[in-house]
Amino acid sequence: MFSNIGLPGILLIGIFALIFFGPSKLPELGKAVGKTLKEFKSATKELTSDLATPSNPIPLDDVKPVAGLDLLQKTTPVDHVS
Fold this sequence. Notes:
Blueprint: H1 6-21, H2 26-52, H3 69-74
């Protein structure tokens, strides 16, 4: 996400943080940012694992045929239309 910032960008962000928040608030701010990132990563990991494993797969025998499918199969394909 921030892989292209580089050292000058990080130093600039640190200087702005010192100016706006002061040295007494920086540890609290860093802790809050770290906690937020940790929660975001765990939520992302949980969502990814939920999407990767199907919770209730539908057997193919239970899938109903599409109504009107036989009409679609009888039509002329687009590439054969003159």
